[in-house]
Amino acid sequence: MNKIGTFFVSALLLLMVATIAQAQDYSTMNLHFIYIDHEPSTPVNQLCERMRTLRDDAIEIDDALIIYLADGKQSLMSFTNLKDIYGKDRDTNDAFVSIIAALQDANSHDVIADEDRKNILRLFDEYNFIGEDGTFKFSSVTMDFYVGSGFWALCNNEKVLSHLFVDFDVASLPKDKFVFNVFRPKGETLDYPEGKPFGNKNIDGINEKLSIFEY
C-alpha cells in the first residue's frame, strides 16, 4: 500500500473510533478508574476481593469501570460497561479474570512510568470525560491508584502520580465531579521527605491537595 493509501486508511480508522466513542451516552454513568501497582507486599487476596466487589457494583448499577494492572509494556486492562472501541476484547469477563489471575499467579509486576503515563493518557483520549464545552460527559469520575513502597522507591510517586495530577489538571477540577485517590497497603511505610509525599517540586500543590489512604 502506498503512503496515500496508508494515510487514508489511518484517517478512516480514527474517524470510526471517534464515531463509536461519541455514540455512547455516559451522562448518567459514574466512571471509576483503578490503577494497580503489584508488588510482593501487595495484599493480593484483599485487593482482588475489592476489584470483584467494584465490578459487581458497576454491573448492577450500570456504572463504568476500568481496571489497569501495570505490567511493563504489556499492561492489562479490563472495561466494564464501556465498549472497547479498538476491538481488543478488553470489555469482556475474560479480560477481568485475566487481571485477577495475573495478580494471583505472580509475585509482582513491573511498572514502567513512561509507558503507564502514556497508556493512561491515551485511554482517556479514547474515553474523554470532559466535552469541548467544558462539561463532564460522565456523572462523575474517580481515579484510584493502589501502590506500594516499591513504587515510591522508584520515584513513581512523581513520575506517574504527580505528572498525571498535572496532565488531568486535577487541581482545577470540581471536587464533586472528579476525585483522585492514592491507596497504600495497611501498615506499609512509604519513604519520602516529611510533608512531601509526591515530590519536592510540589507540582500544582499536590502535596497539600492529596492524601494517602490505607486499604
Give me the secondary-structure topology.
Blueprint lengths: L2 H21 L6 E7 L7 H18 L2 E6 L6 E5 L12 H13 L7 H14 L13 E7 L2 H5 L2 H12 L10 E7 L21 H4 L2 E3 L1
Parallel strand pairs: 1-2, 1-4, 4-5, 5-6
Antiparallel strand pairs: 2-3
Helix pairs in contact: 4-6
How would you describe this structure to a colleague?
The chain is of the alpha/beta class. The protein has 7 helices and 6 strands; from the N terminus they run αβαββααβααβαβ. The chain has helices spanning 3-23, 44-61, 93-105, 113-126, 149-153, 156-167, 206-209; strands spanning 30-36, 64-69, 76-80, 140-146, 178-184, 212-214. A 6-stranded mixed beta sheet has the order 3-2-1-4-5-6. α4 (113-126) packs parallel to α6 (156-167). It is globular. The model is unreliable at 6-21 (pLDDT under 50).
Question: What characteristics describe this protein?
Answer:
215 residues; 6 strands; alpha/beta; six-stranded mixed β-sheet
Summarize, please.
The chain is an alpha/beta fold and 215 residues long. It contains 7 helices and 6 strands.
The secondary-structure element order is HEHEEHHEHHEHE
Q: How many angstroms does the end-to-end distance come to?
A: 53 Å
Overall helicity: 40-55%
Average pLDDT across residues?
Answer: 91
Strand content: 15-25%
Poorly predicted spans: 6-21
Q: What is the global morphology? A: globular
Overall radius of gyration: 18 Å
Q: How many strands appear in the DSSP assignment?
A: 6
Largest sheet: 6 strands, mixed
Given the structure, what is the number of helices? Answer: 7
Q: Helix- and strand-based class? A: alpha/beta
**Order of strands, widest sheet:** 3-2-1-4-5-6
